[in-house]
């Protein structure tokens, strides 16, 4: 056997021994690998204002806000005000929400309500607000009440 072959055989034996020792000494896995994901940003008792070219579009207050990747999760959305010509147009509230800033969409769920100054009141299971078109879509069981004279006359 040439010295070159001896070196190659010894290298293979050493590598095999090291790999074998690592496999024997390594603690066993129960098959459930734990993922350590970055939790993102979490804020509590938040108030946010959305502007478009300096014009106020919306305001919201929520118990907590959690950002994960490109989505923002809202818990206990106390109030969201949607403005038209910088005047309050709709008042929304919900238990949960998911906002996609990239798509400019807000998905609300669980105990969703919408009110306005003229006496309009809506309760629904789910709502999607499309910010770019200012379009609101309601899904699930929906109840609408209209009070004569609006909020000022009640």
Give a quick rundown of the structure:
The chain is mainly β and 154 residues long. Helix content is 15%, strand content 57%.
Task: Write a structural description.
The protein has 154 residues and is mostly beta strands. It has one domain: Lipopolysaccharide (LPS) transport protein A like domain (lipopolysaccharide transport protein A fold), CATH 2.60.450. Helix content is 15%, strand content 57%. The N and C termini lie far apart (103 Å). The mean pLDDT is 82.
Largest sheet: spatial strand order: 1-2-3-4-5-6-7
Helix-strand topology string: HEEEEEEE
Question: Any guess at the CATH architecture?
Answer: Sandwich
Question: What is the mean predicted local confidence, pLDDT?
Answer: 82
Overall geometry: rod-shaped
Whole-number total of structural domains: 1
Query: How big a fraction of the residues is strand?
Result: over 45%
Distance, first to last CA: 103 Å
Q: How many whole angstroms does the radius of gyration measure?
A: 29 Å
The name CATH uses for the topology is lipopolysaccharide transport protein A fold
Assigned CATH superfamily:
Lipopolysaccharide (LPS) transport protein A like domain
What is the share of helical residues? Answer: 10-25%
């Amino acid at each position: 056997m040439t010295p070159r072959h001896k070196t190659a055989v010894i290298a293979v034996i050493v590598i095999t021994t090291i790999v074998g020792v690592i496999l024997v000494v390594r603690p066993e896995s129960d098959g459930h690998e734990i993922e350590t994901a970055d939790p993102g940003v979490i804020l509590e008792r938040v108030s946010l204002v959305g502007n478009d070219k300096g014009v106020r579009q919306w305001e919201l207050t929520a118990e907590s806000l959690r950002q994960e990747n490109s989505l923002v999760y809202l818990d206990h959305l106390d109030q969201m005000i949607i403005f038209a010509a910088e005047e309050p147009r709709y008042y929304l509230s919900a238990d949960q929400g998911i906002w996609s800033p990239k798509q400019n969409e807000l998905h609300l769920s669980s105990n969703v309500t919408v009110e306005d100054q003229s006496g309009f009141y809506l309760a629904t299971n789910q709502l999607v607000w499309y910010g770019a078109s200012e379009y609101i879509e309601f899904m699930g069981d929906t109840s609408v009440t209209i009070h004569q004279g609006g909020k000022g006359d009640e």
